[in-house]
Structures are given as C-alpha cells and as structure tokens.
Amino acid sequence: MRMLVSLYQGVFGWLDRVTNGWFLGLAARFLFAGVLFMYFWNSALLKFGDGAFGFLFLSAGAYAQILPQITEAAGYDVSQIAFFPYGIIVLLGTWGEIIIPVLIVVGLFTRAASVGFIGFVIVMSIVDVVGHGVDLLTLGALFDRHPSALIFDQRALWIFLATVLVIRGPGVFSLDWALGKAFGIHHETGISDTKSKA
C-alpha cells in the first residue's frame, strides 16, 4: 500500500511540477478562444450601426439587448434615450464585448481583463433575468441534475475559467509573458522551477 501511495504522489507531484506556472493559464486561454471568443465577438458586431463608424453609433438592437426595459419604454426609438448615462452604458458594454475577449486571448493585462469578464458575465446574467425575463429552464439551478442551463450552469463555468486566469495568470505564449521577459520581470514556470532545482 505504501508503494502505491508513493507512486501516486510521485506521478502527480511530477505532473504538478512540470505544469506549474504555465499550463493552466495557457489551457484556459486556449479554451476561452475556442469556446467563448467568437460568441462575444459576433454578439458585439451585431450591435454595431451601419457604415464605417457603426462602432460609435450603435444599432437599436444594441440598446434592446443591453437596456431592454428602457428601450421598450422609448418605443425602440433610440434617439429618445439619453446618451448620458444610457448611451454610454450601451457603448461601453459593446466595446467590452470586443476588447475584453481580445485581451484574454492574446494574454495582455490578462488578470485585469479576466476580472472585467467576470463582472461582464454577472451583469449580462442579471440583464437576462431582470430585463429579458428568461424562463426557469434557461435560468437553471445549481445542484440539480440538468447541467445545460444557459445561466447558472454555463456561465458558472465561464466564470470559473476566468477565475483560473485571475489566479494563475495567462501562462506562456502570452503578451504578458513576453513583456515580462522583455522588461526583466521573473515568471515562475514549471520549466524554470525544474531547472533551478536541478
């Protein structure tokens, strides 16, 4: 029995050492890029207005998506909605859908962008529940036997993915890592730790 425990600790201790500091961040960013990036990118692009400056003058759909009750009260005429603060909220929300995912994927200011993403997902979920009145099936619940609800189940996993990046950082092959190397900031990775202990 002692030999099995020793083997177990040896194998998983080695795995922890060789992946420490680089693997989790890299894997989390890869999964974010593969699962969430295009979802948020397309969502933001659908909110842009017409023409080259559509990113500055957003569509009525952007207002309806982000501020549904206010937009409905204005009869979906966005010219009747005050730019301050409502237009700014819609503009920042739309730009956030573009900028935050890009920062996470390339690994620039990754921890701050991931905190921003967590806040974005929480606000998005509140708007879906309060503003759009999603049904209970879409809302879901934790600790039930259905793991596919759009709000509690999926978004809890999105938040966990971002939490990994907040705590562990972006890993290697990120702009944060490259800039750190360029400016002489020490990055702990499993590779360097192994070399230093050898």
From TrEMBL:
Keywords of the record: Membrane, Transmembrane, Transmembrane helix
Where does the chain cross the membrane?
20-41, 83-110, 117-143, 155-179
The highest taxon in the source lineage is: Bacteria
- State what protein this is by name: DoxX
This chain's source organism reads: Pseudovibrio axinellae
Source organism phylogeny: Bacteria, Pseudomonadati, Pseudomonadota, Alphaproteobacteria, Hyphomicrobiales
